[in-house]
Design brief:
Layout (H helix, E strand, L loop, with lengths): L2 H16 L3 H4 L3 H9 L4 H11 L5 E2 L2 E2 L5
Antiparallel strand pairs: 1-2
Helix pairs in contact: 1-4
């Protein structure tokens, strides 16, 4: 998978889980290229970054699954 396809897969997963893409997240593209070159799967990258920055996931009920 080329970087463009990897990035599109990352954005799809990010939007699904956190309702943002890599642009809104402000992630460094050079770092993302490095992670892609290492072979990190898009889903794994999103999970790792979500945990690193303690991002709150959305689900069909909204932020926190509708629990506030």
């Amino acid at each position: 998978m080329g970087f463009k396809q990897w990035l599109e897969a990352v954005d799809r997963e990010f939007i699904r889980r956190f309702r943002i893409d890599h642009v809104l997240g402000g992630f460094d593209e050079d770092e993302m290229v490095s992670d892609w070159k290492r072979g990190e799967a898009p889903e794994d990258w999103v999970a790792r970054i979500g945990a690193k920055y303690d991002l709150d996931e959305y689900d069909d009920a909204g932020l926190f699954g509708g629990r506030i």
